[in-house]
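Task 17 of the worksheet. Students: predict the tertiary structure of the chain below and write it out as structure tokens. Keep your answer in the requested format; marks are given for formatting as well as content.
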Amino acid sequence: MVSSEGLNVSPRNQGAKKFGVTRPISFAGPTSVDLQRTLELKTFLIDMGLYESKEEDARREEVLGRIRQIVKDWVKQLTRLRGYTDQMVEDANALILTFGSYRLGVHGPGADIDTLCVGPSYVSREDFFYILHDMLAEMEEVTELQPVPDAHVPVMKFKFEGISIDLLYASISLLVVPDDLDISDMSVLYNIDEPTVRSLNGCRVADMILKLVPNVEHFRTTLCCLKFWAKRRGVYSNVTGFLGGVNWALLVARICQLYPNAVPSMLVSRFFRVYTQWRWPNPVMLCEIEEDELGFTVWDPRKNPKDRTHLMPIITPAYPCMNSSYNVSASTLRVMLDQFHYGNKICEAIELNKAQWSALFEPYLFFESYKNYLQVDVVAADMDDLRAWKGWVESRLRQLTLMIERDTLAKLQCHPYPHEYVDTSKQCSHCSFFMGLQRKQGELVQEGQQFDIRGTVDEFRHSVNMYLFWKPGMEIYISHVRRRQIPSYVFPDGYRRSRQPRPANQHHTEDGEGSRSNSGEQHLKKRKDPEVVDDKQDKAEKRVSLSPKSWDSVSPETVSHRLDRASEERWASGSVGSNSEAETGGISNSSFITNLNSEMISCDDVGFESVAGSSEENAASDQVSNNRRSLLNDSCKLSPDVLLENGGLTGTGAYSDNLQLEANAALGMVVQSIGGDNSEAMHKPQIESDNKCMKPEVRIQIQALQQCQERETESQQFWRASAFYLCGFDNQIAAN
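Model answer:
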């Protein structure tokens, strides 16, 4: 029998008690071996320092008590200022409730405390972000105070005596908030707005999870284990498109429902077994979705078209039920599924006594898993500005992943890594994020196929620069780096270790053969040296390349920065080779063009490496690349004038690497990469095609452009190239 969630249910359990939306898969309890493995797992988690000491726990409770008193004083002060009676002032109250990992009992040392302040109806969110904010700012115990009022869930972040606090606010429709308020009661949702509902939902969901699991202690141990695993494997981050704390809690809670009598060692193994077979986008739900007359939107793909686009729906159990994992993209889902398969293989080995628990938590070797990366450098004037600017940029990285998927028709996959890195040798306030790039596995690749994401990156950069709280000094630089160019400060010991044979579980095989690993990390396979030049570089010239991005969405004269910072914009351009391309240069079967300046510059002549040429030319190109990387890393110390003197920036902010290219020549190289034509054709394109293949408006545009070729500007040439490409002449050019 197959349940609604696509999992097998034993017929003998059909009449048994139901946990969640389906009957359990198994009621089997632990054997003596399972109990021994559970003991070993708990010992491992303790040795890894995942549990807090009693002293630290008491200190957290003391801090929460201080915050409770502060918010009560704040509400009483506002009540008095607004002219309420003395009795109202005396009765005025505010509650501090916890949610997230602290409420679930799975927080570790140094973890933040997710808290919710519940206040009366006459104390607004504006009072919270202005008056309470000012009160906290004057306290010596409070540091790193950062209000985020425009977030999806408005929050105020700060540290109180060194303990990180995320404080939300909810104003409910009561004049006096009772101390014994039941946050799970539906009445707290009366007459409140959507942001308040989202703020309340954190506490409501945490309470519901604890009510819906068969055994709270087993749930906590299993969740603690899997959160640690997710962090080690680089898939713990809601903001970058993976899963956050509540997502992992809901996934683990569902496994506890499906195996109600299992102990943690069994639950961990079943977690990977179930979710490697889960038929996404079937939703994970702990209970039936509740409808109510209050009218709040609940997750329902039958009624809401937007809900149909969700790839990995994990539904919260409290009304209004929402998809907690709407951030997941096709690329991040692929990464997580691969990691689930990896975990399943290791757990199978543990059950056969062929591996220990430590093997499950081996760190993911992100910087050995791809040949090509995007590096996002974030710079600010000081640490306070960097904290806000970095948070904004990190929250937008998911959009960059979605944009690249959109503009390459999901054929170029991105892996945003949810860790930030800091170069301690630099004096300025900065950090870096990285994204792995690879062609979609299993895709048929044409000779010379390319992915042009210059316009995509430029669009992303524009969206980031729309930050409402931008200050002078806040900058973002995006550049392509190859594996061998990864800066040393990202490695644990500050230097790159010698390359070892890649473990089979490092699943990103860039030759497109196979979608995921079939063995654990301890099983190694032979790979040819990536530094050796690929013999495919002697093949024939490249044919038609693919550039799904619509050129008319990219303007050659786009204003890509604030006017008062025009001279400070520093950009890099590069051609990213892929798959079979040798890491030292040479023609590749497929490459990603990541020229990250706003103008159309030849990807063959400007970049981190030349797409074609002799080994000497490629070596020279690498040297230029290294020089440019050095300039970029030092950009927070150098003025734009210094960069210009070193051949870094042109007058328009485009990096030229000291290469002098005429506009027409550069434009011709772009067309060459599109259709195989030469740059001469760009001056006098001979279009011989049946007019029926063109839309009327496109045909008129081309005729008008042909009539004024002699007086064309660089901008007009760009748009003529775009129209030439969009008309669909690439097949004709390839045939010629």
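Marker's comment: The longest strand covers residues 429-439. The two ends are 59 Å apart (CA to CA).
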